[in-house]
Amino acid sequence: MTHRERFVRCMHFQPVDHIPDEEFGFWDNTFRVWHPQGLPKEINSNGNCDAFFGFAPRSGVPAHVGLSHGFEPQLIEETENYRIERGGDGVTRKVHKSGQDSIPQYLDFPLKGRKEWEELFKPRLDMDQASRYPENREDWEKIKERFNSPEWDKPVGIGIGSIYGWIRDWMGFEHITVMMYDDPELIHEIVHHLATLTTKVITKACQEIKIDYAAGWEDMAFRSGPMISPKMFREFLVPNYKMICDVCHENGIDIIYTDCDGRVIEAIDPWLEAGLTGIFPCEVGAERDMTDPVEVRKKWGDRVKILGGVNKHAMGAGKEAIKAEIKRIEPYVKEGGWIPHCDHRCPPTVAFEDYLYYLDLKRDTFGMPRPEHLEERPEIKAIKSRPGYWV
Question: Model pTM?
Fold first, then answer.
């Protein structure tokens, strides 16, 4: 069974030879912490770690639904401890220089109202820009041939962008929340523009390529729930998600999810109403106060596909906690429709030895083969031969 067949069958709750072996990635600081613990120094980014650990690959159609070009980056102030800079997204932020992964302090946002929308953003979200559309590429026929080939063994995805998260980034959380009340017409216009842009850009690709899944990005929830109420969710977002999802469903794409951290429980029904069918990365959270995938499975059953859902706090709490977490989710993962992996990028609080133990336990539990090239590496053998590695 190829990676592609395995992914599609698993997401449709069909029998597979084993659950797909995937992970979400790692914080930059995780690599730095793990190097003294035995991770080879050349494995230092999310660009080269998947092959090292042997995770299953994916592939994607090059559709461009975001800003056509960024803002001019600018360094505004720099001290020994921090930088104040304007990024390519136009946002001014204070970035601490400690080397630790942390959220910057946001100081100013470029999208303040209709004037900035018309002058700064609409030109960067031009629907007529030919380079957005994959069918305008010189290699379009080769792309179609490659992804439509029965020999192509990687799941094929297409990006469906964002209709809330990007606006929140451009405006700031407080401002977009106020604007939904003070100028709902503008928010409706921006959301609809983004959805229409995405729909236009992906339509021909969805029609001409066998695409296995569609994935977006939102990050619109805190640990206590979504950033907007269910009523506002249905007013502003659901009709526009539906526009995008309709194109997918009309072309046989029924694995549709968006990336959202935090507690998304209250967002699941509106997402389902709009045509989305999955959640990622299903952030369990401390003491499971966010999105417990087991409770999602119990409530929604096979209506919701799950990608992620392994509690990073359990992964960082040692091998007994890892064993308990895998045991907890095991029967539900084996039902299908669930690819288990860390519920966010793996943090440096997880020891490298414990991460290897987690991979071994996950792979053995769900029938995933251990990659031979990883097992044969001397540094990995040395760690796994330590007394007490297995508990």
Answer: 0.94
